[in-house]
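Sanity check record (used in CI):
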Amino acid sequence: MRLRSVSLGVVASLLLVVIALTVSARSFAALQPSDVPAWLQAHVGDSDGQISQIVLERARALYLKKVAQGAVRNPCYFAMDATRPGDLGNGVLGRRYYVICEASQSFRAISSGHGGGRNLKGTVDFSNGRRCSKNFGNAMDSELTAGGAYMTREAKTSFKGFYRTGAKQDAAFLRTFIQFDGEGEAANARQRVIGGHAAQVLRGMCLRKNPTSSHADHDGFVPFGKLVDYAGGRSNGCTSWSPADAGQIISMVKDNPTTLYIYPESRDIAAVAKAVGSGRSLSGAGSYWNASCLKEIGAPKFWPRKTLEPIIAQYKKDHPAPPPQPTPICKGP
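Expected output for YkuD domain-containing protein:
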């Protein structure tokens, strides 16, 4: 009887341990990044304005990791799906950049530019169209988007010149740039001057006499140009937003860094290209790419810096840039 009671006691103790471990496992699972809240899961999908599952899970995992490390206190984080179309036609822009604030249960999908790449004529073409990206990479001077994990860093506001706003009325164009720091294949983001800013630029620059301006040079001239909005186009590899969205995003991260996850990484590109080459469906291969863009580009390609940088360097050597020309003096009033 004594032996039996001892055995029963051991069994009972073991059962308690198993129950405790089960409860702990469930509690731990509740903290895992893959456990997306129901309100946020409702925004998951592959249609415009939605975020694809893998993009959200990776963006959320990056954010939670940085919060746990104490690197981020911002209540919001960002994600971008560079496989989606940037231009849906008829003046409608595709929404592929996401602003997620879980504390306030806020989700926004907005438009964003993508890396245009370059066409080194006679050598190699790794350019992207306005709508979809086929080429990705992390090489210097490639103007390509590199997917992966990023952190927003310092904000720098620069004077670009003046532009005409009305009859004899000019305004100074000041553009703020948010520097990104990347990890892994995106670790050279600072070296590449990769970051985020409004999709605006001054074109057709000339010099106008305005000696009283604080921006005038030693001869009393200021730069002047036409303000161009390219929110529906490509960028030099940076993340660009419409002026209104840029203002909101910059105010969110100024002096309060957060995470940005950009999909796809090189491993995703390789997996999709392999699936396309073998004729397998992406879902069957466990991969993801926006269906309309994949149909348009055929198969994506990642250009590693060790491959592309020597080609770009040789092209520069073979095609030296012409000497810089002085900015012309503006004609007319």
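The CA atoms of residues 104 and 179 lie 26 Å apart. If this sentence no longer matches the regenerated tokens, the check is flagged for review.
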